[in-house]
Amino acid sequence: MSDAPDDPESLLALAPPEQVPAPAPVPEELTHTGVDLRSTVGAKLATVMFLHHFSVSAWIVTLSSYINANSGDDGLAIFTAGFVGTVYGAGPLGGMISPFITGLLADHYVATERLMAILNLGAAAALFAAIGADSESAFYFSALGYFVCFIPSFALATSMSLHHLKRPERDFPVIRACSTSGWIAAGFFVGWFWPLLTGSSIEATATPLKIAMVGQLVTAAFCLVLPHTPPSNRKAPGQKGGFSLSESFALLRQPRFLFLLALAVLAHAPAQFYYSYLNVYLNTWIEMENAAAKMALGQVVEVCCMIVLPAILLRISVKTSILIGLAIWTVRLWILSATALPTMWGREGWIYFAILIHGFAFTLVSISLQLDVDRCAGRKRRATAQGLLAVSMSGIGCFIGAELAGDAGARLLPEELGDATAAGWQSFWLLPTYLMGGVFLLTALFLPQDKKPQ
Q1: Which of 19, 41, 105, 275 has the lowest CB atom count within 10 Å?
Q2: Residue 231 has what DSSP assignment?
Q3: What's the number of CA atoms in the CB half-sphere (13 Å) around residue 130?
Q4: In this structure, are residues 29 and 377 in contact, taking their beta carbons and an 8 Å threshold?
């Protein structure tokens, strides 16, 4: 009788190594632990979000006033009618060019924090060129260069946060709220603190561009101390496989993911009217003092909304959240059209109301989209997915919206906006009102219903 063991465990132990079956791989989603929001890494993620939006808010909010002050025969006299919409279109165009490419690089080849540092240095260089621009085309291409660098860097900051957080659906809105806090801080700094310090407004000058340039340099330096985030799809030496374009585009074969990208395009086109023209509308037509600082009140509400968004999404679906946000967007654009009439009852109060409800509209639409896209993508294609969303949201959608806003501004408003009429401004704001209402109906009819997270 043989002395060889007959139980499976002993036989497996005596087998040659090459005959021992390899254990089944454990999905990374089950092994990833992540960090808590209240940690050093969490603080760094919150800080880089703050710095990103402090820099962009420092100049982009007041850009329409700067252009208006240098249009026609005023100031540098280098800008023409409708250039407000054209230059705001540089942001979306930059969003179409680079986020997907940088997302692929971050997923496959380059550590995210290093790529972000390079992009922020590029953004600072572009602002330096814009400050010295002496022609409309030079300013436009400087702005385009800025957004080619800024938009993918912010998309990478988003994917980095989702990668490192232990519970991204709960904690990411709080991290994202720090980004909005940076936007608020810049608005108050440019629109209130600086005038208080110097005795004069800088909203129509190049000073906000200089503040933003310094902010981008600080952001680039800070990126070097962010948590190391290597490419999630980098292959070990000798390991088969590597970058596969077909695998990266597999996301586009998911019906829900495609719906989310299409919705990002449609929802962010009408919103661009608000971002492009509200500051100059408040300064030239409403004649509101410290307009940039008062516009930041909408972001104050936005921070509060982001903090409570996880609790909201436990009770309602993403589709319902987006529909509520689109409805609020439609109402606030209609309110702005009504405020064009100087005889409107409680006019200034309605303007404050339209500014304040911005936080609800933006959070319920944009942040819900980011979280749902992340659920569709998984960890291996997270940066690529957020890059595609940035292309749709900050790229194609905003580009279409900026072009529409610029065309509407050129047709309905005069070259020097101080000479505009109530009828012109009212027609201008009604156009995005109708567009956003149409997006609401399309979303209600065609966006698939999602299951509430467990």
Answers
A1: 19
A2: -
A3: 31
A4: no
Please check whether residue 420 is in contact with residue 408, taking contact to mean a CB–CB distance below 8 angstroms. no
- DSSP SS3 for 420: coil
Its CATH architecture, for the domain 36-233+247-446, is Up-down Bundle (1.20)
Q: How far is CA 111 from the centre of its chain?
A: 21
Amino acid at 66: Y
One-letter amino acid for residue 320 of the chain:
T
pLDDT of residue 18: 47
* Token pair belonging to 240: 């088969």
Task: List the one residue out of 135, 326, 163, 141 whose CA is nearest residue 230.
Answer: 163
Provide block-wise average pLDDT over 10 residues at a time, the chain (454 residues): 51 47 44 73 93 93 85 80 76 74 76 92 96 91 92 87 84 87 88 85 90 96 92 57 55 83 92 87 87 81 85 85 95 95 92 92 89 78 78 85 86 79 93 96 86 49
CA distance linking residue 452 with residue 454, whole number of Å: 6
Contact of 341 with 422, CB cutoff 8 Å: yes
- The domain locations on the chain are 36-233+247-446
For position 454, what pLDDT does the model report? Answer: 43
Q: DSSP 3-state assignment of 273?
A: helix
Could you tell me where the DSSP H helices lie in 250-377?
255-281, 291-295, 297-313, 318-338, 347-356, 358-362, 368-377
Give the model's pLDDT for residue 453.
46
Number of H helices, E strands in the chain: 23, 0
